[in-house]
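[job 4471] stage=fold_predict status=RUNNING
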Amino acid sequence: MSEQTPRAGRRWYRSDWFVIPCMLLMLLAARSSLADHYHVPSGSMEYTIMTGDRVLIDKTAYGINIPFTHVEIVARGVPARGDVSVFDSPADGTRLIKRIVAVAGDTVSLRNGLLSVNGERLTADAAATRRVVEIFGEHRAELNLDSGGGPGVDSLIIPRGKVLALGDHRGNSLDSRYFGLVDVEQVYGRALGIYYRRGAGLTWRRL
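[job 4471] inference complete, writing structure tokens
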């Protein structure tokens, strides 16, 4: 008795020509809406994040979008003070990773690279590490002030729908002091932690 040949119509969905593109599409959709990674190209976030670090990004932190769009389908919150977040530069669309240092309603000043928010200085005692540290609730920012503090900010009130984003390397960061405040809707991911550091390999340092 001869074997029966399966109909092509019943097995097309098992073909590599179908399965592989579907898997790639699902992976791209997940990266677009759920999670992604970011390769840090510069030292603008030193000493918190170093050049060459690879950072895991939670794209659901502030809401869930339709894949490949900025159309939000589930709202989850807004960027909080101290978050290390990813957004596109309002100036030229370059993808950036910076710290959200002030949110709507805050009054912020920056002098010699050191922040005061709502009249309170954020600098902590970091004599043990000999580094300047700012405290944002549960977040700690290890600043690099080797290049000075960069441009200052004088009693700026953050309007509704905006955030102030700065680099922790205050004298060497292209941030809101140059391109202005960032729209909350344009902040599409929060950095969870560093999973790879050049010279150390795989690691985990929560941000």
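[job 4471] summary: The chain has one domain: 35-206.
[job 4471] exit 0
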